[in-house]
Amino acid sequence: MRVDVVVIGSGQAGVPLAVRLAAAGRRVVIAERKALGGTCVNYGCTPTKTLVASAHAAHVARTAARLGVKAGPVKVDLAAVVDRKDRIVRRWRAGVRRRLGSAAPRLTLVRGHARLIGPRQLEIAGERYEADIVILNVGARPAVPPLPGLEEVPWLDNTRIMQLRRVPGHLVVLGGGYIGCEFAQMFRRFGARVTVIDRSQHLMSTEEPESSAALEAVFRAEGIRLVMKATAESVSRHGRTVTVRLAHGRPVTGSHLLVAAGRRPNTDDLGADAAGIRLDTKGYIEVDERYRTSAEGVYAVGDCTPGPQFTHASWDDHRILFDLLQGRGTRTRNDRLVPITAFTDPQVARIGLTEREARARGYAPETATMDFGEIARAVETDRTAGTMKILLDPGTEKVLGVSIVGAEAGELIHILAPVMVAGISARAVVDAEYVHPTFAEGVQSLVMSLARYATE
To answer: What is the secondary structure of 168-217 as a DSSP string?
Structure first.
């Protein structure tokens, strides 16, 4: 069968691309071998943030006495928590199906594994297809580290841990990045003992040191044990106990093991060689600034490409590529700032450069930091944990980067996003009027604490 476009994968870039290209008059086939919606809907954002909400509710109830509210013992029904998560996942998944159906008959959903068998030629569920344009949105999955003994242990990844219906006695988390930290705090608040092991000196080691330190303080205060600068050498199972042996230090023993050691792209069985598509050393699809692969007419978007693996980045991929395919695009994948947020409590958010990245690029940034506890709203709500940091280019007064650890940091980071995208001076934030008392006015206070604005 010959069509105009084949999209492989129904993730956060593939679905809107397929729908919009069909609405623009092209005949489109979208292939999906698993659940509709990709990682975000099924294994990432939707289920994890739903579970985080339940964990947060348990924590608030458990600690309400600090606000003068006394409650009885808190009990977490993990099975009910998981059932709620599954209902919401099914709701979003059904929404994806409806959206694809709304674009019929120009858009056809084909269920099954898609494999490239030649230049813009594919086999999907036993049928052959040819297309003028092929878009790869095949996503990524949890990486499995080459850890001796792992294959003999019933270890958990980010998907399997969300299927547990009883709270673990002691969860050992191998990896202190975004995923590991979210699950570590979540299950601690559900009632499990938790130990986090990471080879780096700090949690979320790619962030500002101040951000990592603020989060670590909260984790320790909540009773999460942190084993840092530790390399796992092997794992073993003895009955219902899992043991992680470290290169240095005492072994760590628990009831459950979560491996949060990063992600790997789903390109192993894609047929990239047959189509002339180059992969990098980690298996990611090499693309240029216009999402073009090494094969003519083949594009790649989302988590299967090198770069930030976030839903909002994938969704932005679709906007940029759609405009490029329609012949009206001016932006490229290099022309953007990708904000990040880890949905721990407090949240960890950043947009732009860290200080070490800025200095590596030749900047000598002006910096300012401020404790989150200096914000009136934070004091009033007893959510004072965290810190904020801003980097300013002294020559242009443009914001180079902002890091926020604190309540609703994922929302607050967007105050600076349009300022940075527009390339305007930080003075716009200084001159604006912010409502009191809000968390947002704390961001203004941070900017005003820069030396050049401090006397105003």
So the answer is: -SEEEEE--SHHHHHHHHHHHHHT-EEEEE-SSSSTTTTS-HHHHHHHHH
> What pLDDT was estimated at residue 329?
83
Residue 138 token pair: 């095949």
Per-residue pLDDT reduced to its tens digit, 49-100: 999 999 999 999 999 999 999 878 999 999 999 999 999 999 999 999 999 9
Cα–Cα distance measured from residue 286 to residue 308, given in angstroms and rounded to the nearest whole number: 14
Backbone phi, then psi, for 300, in 5-degree steps? Answer: -135, 140
At 126, list the tokens: 């036993």
For residue 346, cis peptide bond before it (omega within 30 degrees of 0):
yes
DSSP labels, 276-336: T--B-TTSPBP--TT-B-SSTTEEE-GGGSSS---HHHHHHHHHHHHHHHTT-----TTS-
**Which candidate, 456, 451, 395, places its Cα nearest to that of 425?**
395
Rounded CA gap, 244 and 48, in Å? Answer: 25
Measure Cα distances from 328 to 150, 194, 280, 322, 344 in Å: 50, 51, 30, 9, 39
| Bridge partner list, 403 | 350, 389
Write out pLDDT tens, residues 94-107: 999 999 999 999 99
Nearest to 158, CA basis, from 314, 255, 11, 264: 264
Angle between helices 45-62 and 78-102 (to 10 degrees): 150
Asked if residues 115 and 123 have their Cβ atoms less than 8 Å apart, the reply is yes
| Polymer length in residues for the chain | 456
Helices and strands in the chain, H and E counts: 14, 21
